[in-house]
Amino acid sequence: MSYDKVKQAEKIAIGTKQTTKMVEQGMAAEVFVASDADPRITAKIVNLCKKMGVQVTYVDSMKQLGKACGIEVGAAMAAAGNE
Questions:
Q1: Which residues pair with 58 in a beta bridge?
Q2: Count of helices and strands (H, E) across the chain
Q3: Would you list the domain boundaries of the chain?
Q4: Distance set, CA 81 to CA 13, 38, 47, 48 (Å)
Q5: Distance (Å, rounded) from C-alpha 63 to C-alpha 27?
Q6: How far apart are CA 10 and CA 35, in angstroms?
Q7: How far apart are CA 33 and CA 54, in angstroms?
Q8: In 1-83, which ranges are continuous DSSP H helix?
Q9: pLDDT tens for each residue of 19-45
Q10: Do 43 and 68 touch, CB atoms closer than 8 A?
């Protein structure tokens, strides 16, 4: 699984607002989206990533993504950048 990429990223944004901001600023190298997150929330970021040419990687669960980000709660999405 690609959780190691999240852990190794120099810069990480967790959650919808921070992830969107990082993608819009062109700082995101890859965006991780939890498969069990609400599609109404994730669809916008997936479309934005397509437009901006950012790779989207789907991960199993919000809980695991949150854990990989070092937080105690689930995360619907996270962006990894190396800026």
A1: 33
A2: 4, 4
A3: 1-25+45-71
A4: 8, 24, 18, 16
A5: 25
A6: 24
A7: 12
A8: 3-8, 16-24, 39-52, 62-68
A9: 999 999 999 999 999 999 999 999 999
A10: no
Give the tokens for residue 42. Answer: 């994730």
| Residue with token string 């969107």 | 20
Contacts by residues 63-66 (CB-CB < 8 Å, ≥ 24 positions apart): 64/1, 64/3, 64/34, 65/3, 65/6, 65/32, 65/34, 66/14
User: Rounded to whole angstroms, what are the CA distances from 16 to 21, 24, 29, 83?
Assistant: 9, 12, 16, 19
CA 25, CA 41: separation in Å to the nearest integer? 19
* Global pTM value: 0.89
- Pairwise CA distance, residues 33 & 11, whole Å: 16
